[in-house]
Amino acid sequence: MTQPRPNEFIAPPECPVFEPSWEEFADPFAYINKIRPIAEKTGICKVRPPKEWQPPFACDVDRLHFTPRIQRLNELEAQTRVKLNFLDQIAKFWELQGCTLKIPHVERKILDLYQLNKLVNDEGGFEAVCRERRWSKIALKMGFAPGKAIGSHLRSHYERILYPYNLFQTGANLLVRGMSPSLHAALLMSLLHCLPHFLLYFSVRTVLSWCGAALSQVDQYMCLVCGSGSEEDRLLLCDGCDDSYHTFCLIPPLHDVPKGDWRCPKCLAQECGKPQVAFGFEQASREYSLRGFGDMADSFKSDYFNMPVHMVPTELVEKEFWRLVSTIEEDVTVEYGADIASKEFGSGFPIRGGRFQVSPEDEDYLSCGWNLNNMPVMDSSVLTHVTADICGMKLPWLYVGMCFSSFCWHIEDHWSYSINYLHWGEPKTWYGAPGSAAEKLECVMRKLAPELFESQPDLLHQLVTIMNPNTLMNHGVPIYRTNQCAGEFVITFPRAYHSGFNQGFNFAEAVNFCTMDWMPMGRMCVDHYRQLNRYCVFSHDEMVCKMASTADTMDVALASAVQQDLNAMVQEEDELRAKVNKMGVQQSQQVEYDLLPDEERQCSKCRTTCYLSALTCPCSPGQLVCLHHAQDLCCCPPSNLTLNYRFTMAELYPMKEAVTLRAESYTDWVSRVTNILEDRNKKSLEELRSLVEKAEVKRFPQGDLLLRLRAVTLDAEKCAVVAQQLLNGKRQTRYRRTLTRTCNNLLTVEELRTFVRQLQNLPCSIRQAPLLQDLLTRVDDFQQRSERLLLDEAPSPADLQCLLDASLGLDVELPQLSVLRERLEQARWLEGVQGASDRPHSLCLDTMRRLIDQGVGLAPHASVERAMARLQELLTVSEHWEERALSLMEARPHHCVETLEAALQEVESIPAYLPNCLLLKDTVDQAKDWLQEADALQLTSRIPVLDTLTDLVSRAKIIPVWLDPLARLEALISDVQAWKESAAKTFLMKNSPYSLLEVLCPLCDAGTGSHKSKFKRTKDVAQCGWRNGARLDCLGDVERALSESKDSSSAMATLAEVRHKELESLMTIRAYNESRLLPTGDAGAFRVSGAMLQCELCRDCFHRGCLTHQDPLPNQAWLCPQCRRSEKPPLDRVLPLLASLQRIRVRLPEGDALRFLIERTVRWQHRVQQASSEGVLGETSHQRWGASSPSWSLGPQTNVFCVSKMTFKRKHDFSPPVKDSVNSKRTKRHVEESSERKEKAKKPRKKKPKMNKERSQEVKGMSSPTSTHTDLFPSDSDEDFTLCAAPWCREPEGKQVNWVQCDGNCQQWFHQICVGVSAAQAEKEDYICISCTQPDHNRE
């Protein structure tokens, strides 16, 4: 709904509209009395007759000619008329000054001079506003925007137009003839001080010359102010009285001679001081026929709105009407055919004896009470007793309207009822205020337009003034409206102000009527008229006396009303006559005032029509006063006055008694019935029946009271029966509901409420009433609780269920139950939605779909719709992201982590459980963890383990994310696999059942197989050797330990532990096998028996025939099939494998095992050399290869040597030299090559700076991987740093020995052949030794 624009008319609320049935429509006064309690609260009401009631239009259209009233719309409204009157006065003032008033424009709007003048006066006047600089404030109050210097413009216009007029109003411009020049000059100076604007036109010297001009000689025409006749060109001659004035002697002075007629201040005061003519509508100069007026009216409306008359909306006409009456810029004139006497041209309703021939089917309209010709004179109307035919009151008036023609605010004469019927035409818009707000409306209009009431105190009785209903409503006056269409009645109630206008050409008829309830209001109206000095249309006292004169035949109900009014009248008359007698009035005479016309018996003071009494005086013939104004007739003594009376008091009292006697029985009956009907005293049903019987016996009038009594009695009888049936039926219904629930005989709430209301309104009490009231109370409480819950946007399911449970005890049909059940379903659904929303981690797509499917079946509700919308939106977004997450993970090629993280940032704001999105998040987390691990492997100084890389790669393959390091890691693993294949080809025999790790590692499972089964036969053999290192009992344990080791140092320690177990196990097996071959107690037995071969390691014996292809080679140790697990490649082939593994920079158990194997071999070599130098190896060799020397005669150290040497094939393996030869050879090699090696060592050291000896020894000690395991490597000389740093140095000989320096931290030198590096590789690539590739080894 659009907001109304400023100053746009807002329609008041509608008044009640009644549609009587045919039975109600039969008696108009009874129906009006029925609707009066409702309708009088709004002042007006509309009655739509039954559709079949359509009286014929009986007016003589051909004879109907009338002269309409002219209405200028902007003169109708009170406030607008005040402004127009003010502008007329201003215009007249300036016209008499010889100037033409031109209203200025400010901000493209006509300046409201009236508002400007009023605001300046309210602020203290022109001088105060100028002194305090409040012109901007006045501009804001007038509605002008701030900041545009509007105040200076307003001041200029006020000085030029309004200030001279205000000076005239105060009399400041009236100059005293013969005023002294000094006084005149002082007055001018003070004026110029207050009016600096005039200094723009006159200089100070000019003003002083005016003051000195008074001293010049007197000419023929002399200024009446200064007495001088000089400067004749500035001497003005009044066109009214011919007095002369200088322009500069006037206040305010004129800067130029006016061009038109000019009046002096004296004549100006006389002309402007004349009283204004009372405002009224003037009659048009043209007489219209009904058809001619209709053509004019339709033409005016169609031209004004530029559309056919029947298409103009009533709302548009209404707003336009109130806009026109409130503006002074637009002058729209219309004509209104009002107050046309129906007696002359005939009523619109058919009447008996009229010219209109009524058809037989329409004869009922002749006597119908709603025929406005019949209503005022019906028996129920008080106006029947008024003998005069009063036009407008007893005789209908006709109204022919056109668009915008209006009837102004007024109340009916004597505050009577009025009824208006629209025969045909366009609607008539009505506005009304209740009678209780009449004084409020009058006060508001006097307050807003006091100027109008000053000139016309009875303005509201002239029907010439209108005021915007919105203005009245803003001041607290209740206003109601209605649109009266053709065929509808509008009834106004006593003292109800009403006004309105016509929407277009129409024909209406109106008349007054008075009912019995009006009589107190009628007497109040006479008193009110007396205070306003307004004449009465008829004499109220005369009407009451005539009614009392027929007391014997008077209706008893009317007699009761007349009795009350007659008592007040007689009491007042008695008091007034006593007051007159006290004044001294002694003369009296009886006068037949009812024979005199009203004009001859009006009080000369208050214009009240006298009837009971009046005062006259011989000094004032033809004049009389009522007794209320006994002292206002003349100045004669009271003894000269004569009391004229219609009845003596002795005649009035019997008249009063007659009416009282007639009304007494009825009054008593009415009193009792009234007390009963108003619930003042509850009576029994039998007493009600007795009152009905009394009314029938005494033939009391069939009025509303008797009808109500009969109805109440009948209702009481019915209620007594129904209440009992209801309680019986209630028990039966409860019984049926409990047992079968197949029958529903419940009352509705409205039926129960109506029934309880009937019980409450009855004058008698019923035994069953409290039970029904209690039931209704519980039902009302249920409904109130239901309304509160239903008004709640989101009621709790518990409250709804509690309320539904409470309804089970109410045996009433409750319409809220279905709604409550629906809301319960909605609340439970909303609770489920809220619960699911509160747990977003469990809100999956299926849950959303299930909730949406459930919500579709619910009744529509705003909260459900909002929840459904949010849920549907969440489902749509969730499905979209689920599909997108799945597509992101299934994309080929995979997306990078950054892309997936960007998608996840958008998903984080979705409050739902999204498996694919969570999977995507887990995938991203896995990818980030994987990348972090991969980066950690790159950043750490440790060499990664193969299992770690394999695990990373395997995990990366199942992560659907593009991982940059994956390709490098896969390539690295591929290199490792290639290295393992190469190593397997080097070490593994053809079709070997052993793995590469089994071959390279020490025998952790020594004693298994046949050895183990044999060994178990002897229980007392070295059990501790079997139980030490239980954690490394199998190859899997060793492989796991190597994979879990942090560095090569811990790996070497693990392998050393396995080697230790291997030695212990082998030694135990050797001892066991050797013990089997020796006889008991014979230590010199042979170790072989027959044609058997003995294994060099396990000392077990085998028949040659039991072996296949196992013949021992010359000068080589023979190993049994269980001890020989691999080939014995030369060390030259093994060292490149270790070097290539170093270049790959990946730790794997096979690599650690290979390195440990190489170290074992080198240590074995050194130990052999040491043993040779000590002479142990010679003896052992001699015993070993001698035919008579058994192997078990060797010492344990020699046995260890034998066990440790079986992996690599070296050139010294089975031809070991004696000690001297070994020492001499090593010494010779060292001596011969020392100088040459030093020179060769110095040459490649140009690659890096040479370190000092201490530092080199420290680095050598830290970098040697064997330094933590053994101390078997003593330095040969002080120049050890010039030797090869490889523990397994092969000590190459010759003149061309190639060296390579480590590019790591140790910077040691190695023989290229010892570390498996070719000359080309040494030149192109950096070489890092094993010690530098394992930095953690040095710290542990």
TrEMBL record:
The reactions it catalyses are:
N(6),N(6),N(6)-trimethyl-L-lysyl(4)-[histone H3] + 3 2-oxoglutarate + 3 O2 = L-lysyl(4)-[histone H3] + 3 formaldehyde + 3 succinate + 3 CO2
- What InterPro entries does this protein map onto? ARID_dom (IPR001606), ARID_dom_sf (IPR036431), JmjC_dom (IPR003347), JmjN (IPR003349), KDM5_C-hel (IPR048615), KDM5B_ARID (IPR047981), KDM5B_PHD1 (IPR047978), KDM5B_PHD3 (IPR047979)
In its UniProt entry, the species of origin is given as: Esox lucius (Northern pike)
Signal sequence annotation: none
Compartments (UniProt record): Nucleus
Q: Which CDD domains match?
A: ARID_KDM5B (cd16874), PHD1_KDM5B (cd15603), PHD3_KDM5B (cd15687)
Cross-referenced PANTHER family, in alphabetical order? [HISTONE H3]-TRIMETHYL-L-LYSINE(4) DEMETHYLASE, LYSINE-SPECIFIC DEMETHYLASE
Q: Which SMART domains match?
A: ARID, BRIGHT, JmjC, JmjN, PHD
Q: Has keyword NADP?
A: no
Cross-referenced SUPFAM superfamilies: ARID-like, Clavaminate synthase-like, FYVE/PHD zinc finger
- Protein name (Swiss-Prot/TrEMBL): [histone H3]-trimethyl-L-lysine(4) demethylase
